[in-house]
Design goal:
By secondary structure, the protein is of the alpha/beta class. It has 20 helices and nine strands. The structure holds nicotinamide-adenine-dinucleotide and magnesium ion. The site of nicotinamide-adenine-dinucleotide has 25 residues, from helix 4, helix 7, strand 7 and helix 20. Magnesium ion (MG) binds next to helix 11.
Amino acid sequence: QERYHDCAATNFLRFRGSLCGLDTYQNGRSGRMDPSLQDKIHARNHEFHLRMVETRTLSKRSPHYTKGVPSTMAAQIWYENDGDLSVLEGKKVAIIGYGSQGHAHALNLRDSGVDVVVGLRPTSKSVDFAKEQGLEVKSVADAVAEADVVMILLPDQYQAAVYKKDVEPNLKPGAALAFAHGFNIHYGYIKPSEDHPVFMVAPKGPGHIVRREYTNGRGVPVVVAVEQDPDGKTWPLCLAYAKALGALRAGAIKTTFTEETETDLFGEQDVLMGGINHLCDMGFDVLTEAGYQPEIAYFEVCHELKMLVDLMNEGGLNKARWSCSDTAQYGDYTSTVITEETKKRMQYQLKRIQDGSFAKEFIDDQDAGAPKFKQLQEEYGNVRIETVGPKLRAMFSWNNGKDEDADMATFNGKIARTQVQ
Ligand code: NAD
Ligand code: MG
């Protein structure tokens, strides 16, 4: 099976490699492509994808992996009736941190009838904010000491230090540890002793949306995982937590700490942020260096992205393509910008995630006071596209003031906090 896949994939890729007249273009000849070639590519493409769907080759990073068995198993998804809130009855849940995720978890759980305490540094600006929302607030150490479940919602780079100093020494015997991202457990920066259940409820959306959806009677989907299950009761506890968060209204997909961490890092660095952000930035430079007006360039390579992403969110790549002109579609299919070389770079980035070298580079820099991170924030905060961005965004009535909205304040806050710590 595996050999078959490799073979199909290689043929497909070889085919794609010579796609769209890139070679011809690079050799300085005409870049026009024979339309019948285009049809062949589509047929091949379609066939390849059908085969990929028929038999998925899962790696040991998937929760459904069984050695030597090609799995056809669909992802396991739990919904509202699969979670039992009574599992949390008589239990105290400490939410550590009150940022993007922290405020959403604390408020949603509280509104679902769970006994919640928020753990914060006494000097934190969030103390008053959390109290205003009617929540009980204590120091991290005190909140942990009385909790049966401790959800750690601090920035990933500070979790290990806070865990060592305030969480580990105060954790009740058998108390569960929970996370919204697998980073610290997966890379071993936090190593809880074996008697503590360890689970993950990771929302696939920002905290402010997790809260907004909950108050609207809906939920943001989560991925869930159990890393340590000393008492055999960790899965029901994990699903009860996901239900209290409102997430089972949308669905919880089973994963592992390894799968969640590695795919999450890959997505953000190679597609959603590192991919798209650099693409917009570079597109802007290409147009303006070719003498086009920056204002026009901004519209074409940045502004319209949102509308396409909305369509993609509703109906996938097909809906986004369907809604565009045939001209746009044809240009999309035949574009030579993203090449086999890009795929190789992605695979290289993925290797660095899998072998821990990305995590090590990030954490080592953070531990040294984040000199490289701060320098990069400075450098990328002043890219050329952002010099025209604010002026143009002000032209859209629905955008007015959005540059100063809560999320942006949080981001500036993040920069400020990094500089302080
Ligand atoms: P955040 O930066 O918004 O908030 C962190 C909170 O921790 C703040 O209240 C801050 O004051 C507090 N804090 C910082 N340092 C502290 C310290 N030393 N001691 C005590 N408190 C401290 O963080 P976030 O974005 O909500 O991320 C929290 C976790 O959720 C991370 O593991 C992240 O990967 C995960 N996550 C985030 C999102 C998201 O959209 N933001 C989505 C899914 C998962
Ligand atoms: Mg993510």
